[in-house]
Amino acid sequence: TGSDKGDLTAMFRSTAVVAISVAAWVTPSLAQERPAKDALAAYIDSLERITTADALDRIESRWNPAVHYFPVVFGRLRLGFHQLRTAQLSGEIADYEQALETFERATIDGSNQAEAWYALGLIKIEMRRRGFPDRQVTQQHMSGYKRYYLGGREALLRSLAVGPQFMPSLQFLLEIVVEEGDRVQPAGVLAAMRTAAHLMPDDPGPLLVLGRSERKEGQLDTALSRFRQYGAAGGDPGVALLEASRTLFALDRADEAVSAYWSGLGHPGPRGRALYRTDLSWVAIHSEIAEFDRLEADSLDAWVTDFWADRDAKALRPPGERL
Fold first, then answer.
1. CA 266, 272, 273, 277 torsion-angle sign
2. What is the DSSP secondary-structure string of 255-289?
3. Which of 43-47, 95-99, 217-221, 246-250 has the lowest mean pLDDT?
């Protein structure tokens, strides 16, 4: 998130990337490279404790070839994560671009390495969150822009094509596609979310992504079941009920839809509150949204009731019709 931009602990140990545990980095097909993975995990663990450029300068960015005989790709990854930490501490786009180039080369050295594609996805999404402009491409036979967000998303999918159960990529992809909201997801993302739902049964997020995509594709009953499963698995109750409400309306089950809508306002979590806010923003004016933002949680239900009653009265409609 924006507040975590300079923090490697948040970058690598958040719910998005619980990623750098040694076990998570070892994929079955690459078990023979365990020493390199262990060393890389330990190195990144040391980087996350660095908070100043001077301290970072004292950390070697490369392994000693006389001591370590690791594949080239892991040397690139070590250098890239050192450069990434430099970039996070400086905030400079030039430093990010240097790390990006290193990670891009790592995917060439190790195109069959889930870790390399994951690192590339990680930095591209970070650059997008930093607000850096997409890079213009001027190479021969090419024109346009390399988009950080789409490129990062694609890199995570490439990582999962190599290692379908590679947890860092599954968790980070889940974080970003949940943020994408109501949309049809491509086959690769849906396959990843099904894998995530199997491997992370305590995380309701994959169910939400699957349900939203299924609803957009017209699979309404399946989507409704997903949203109910999401709520039962510990998902934000406001999100679960508002998404169920939208789906019930699409199924022409209006009474149930209205009931679900109001129930979701009872105890929404942060995501649920944000989703109701987005829903209201289509018709509310700026001052009303500002008032909504100031409300305590136990006042939401009454305020939204008055909001829709006022809209119905102004439109000379029966109570509840606009909803």
1. negative
2. HHHHHHHHHHTTS--HHHHHHHHHHHHTT--HHHH
3. 43-47
